[in-house]
Amino acid sequence: MRLLSWNVNGLRAIYGKGFAAAVANLQPDILALQETKLQPDQRSPEMVELHDYRSYWDYSTEKKGYSGVAVYARPKPEQVRAGFGIERYDKEGRVLQLDYGPFILFNVYFPNGQRDEERLQYKLDFYRDFFAHADRLRAQGRSLIITGDFNTAHNEIDLKHPRANQDRSGFLRIERDVLDDIVARGYVDTFRHLYPDTVTYSWWSYRFNARKSNAGWRIDYFFVSRDLIERKVVRDAFILNDIHGSDHCPVGLDLDLSL
């Protein structure tokens, strides 16, 4: 099974940049999107019924043109849930939970903390409360896959200019400590686990020709509960730098569910 995750920075905008053709070429079994920036009545029939995928959606009820996540999937989940039960977060349309039996998939658009101190605290609170929810599922014996835009580069290898950005939200020590903590609690960054020394990025600012000069950040992840690593369910993780259309590129995960 191949899973892809992509912050599209506006689904309507990326449709004009060859999105449907890219999906047809990539052929994921499951595609998780962040920042769709749509309301239900803004979706075209093609968006809802893309190729041979079922689609699942979560929307911002707070304001239009903001946030939003979607999942396109060939395998039908046993259950789908939007949000994770806390209205403070759920109203921004940031989480889809799909139960596939052998694993639960979370598609998450984690908050950006750059606006001000209040928004940074919201981001930190979201991390805390979302992973408390994830921990409760793991305590029930569930295997988890958590993908999306985490809006934090974990270590210096994960961005081009770490020193210049050490005081910027997205690479603050307090944010990186959260990722340290979830790793210590048994969540595995699949790409870094498989490729500990590989320098590659998943997001580039639209400013200063950052993508052309590859001055990027790795902030899009597939984290899994450690049991999926130990059982050798995870076959590969990858980042598709050559796919354009957004300021992010897709990241992926290959699973072997026959084990």
Automatic annotation (TrEMBL):
InterPro entries per record: AP_endonuc_1 (IPR004808), AP_endonuclease_F1_BS (IPR020847), AP_endonuclease_F1_CS (IPR020848), Endo/exonu/phosph_ase_sf (IPR036691), Endo/exonuclease/phosphatase (IPR005135)
SUPFAM superfamilies from the UniProt entry: DNase I-like
Entry keyword Metal-binding: yes
Gene3D superfamilies per UniProt: Endonuclease/exonuclease/phosphatase
Cofactors (names): Mn(2+); Mg(2+)
UniProt entry tagged with the keyword Hydrolase: yes
Keywords on record: Hydrolase, Magnesium, Metal-binding
Domain Endonuclease/exonuclease/phosphatase: 4-248
Family: Belongs to the DNA repair enzymes AP/ExoA family.
NCBIfam families given in the database record: exoDNase_III, xth
Protein name in UniProt: Exodeoxyribonuclease III
Organism: Desulfofustis limnaeus
Phylogenetic lineage: Bacteria, Pseudomonadati, Thermodesulfobacteriota, Desulfobulbia, Desulfobulbales
